[in-house]
Amino acid sequence: MKERAEVVVIGGGINGSAIAYELAKRGKEVVVVERKWLAYGATGRCGAGIRQQWSTKENALLAKKSVEIFEKLEEEL
Questions:
Q1: Considering the entire predicted model, what is its pTM?
Q2: Under a CB-based contact definition with an 8 Å cutoff, are residues 13 and 46 in contact?
Q3: For the chain, percent helix, then strand, then coil, each to nearest 5?
């Protein structure tokens, strides 16, 4: 196990994993720390849906952008 890294991300759910992935793409040395295994918590138990109904324009735009990112992710990985 590594003892040092430029960036340590606590939590290997969708948010932590996405942050770690983006930082690694930018050349950072990243370590993800998760209690059990990746997607162990809420991410692993979600329905895998992306909510599109939001009460604010900002949240609706974030959800739309998320769909665009997810659609391209398979090719990138």
A1: 0.70
A2: no
A3: 45, 10, 45
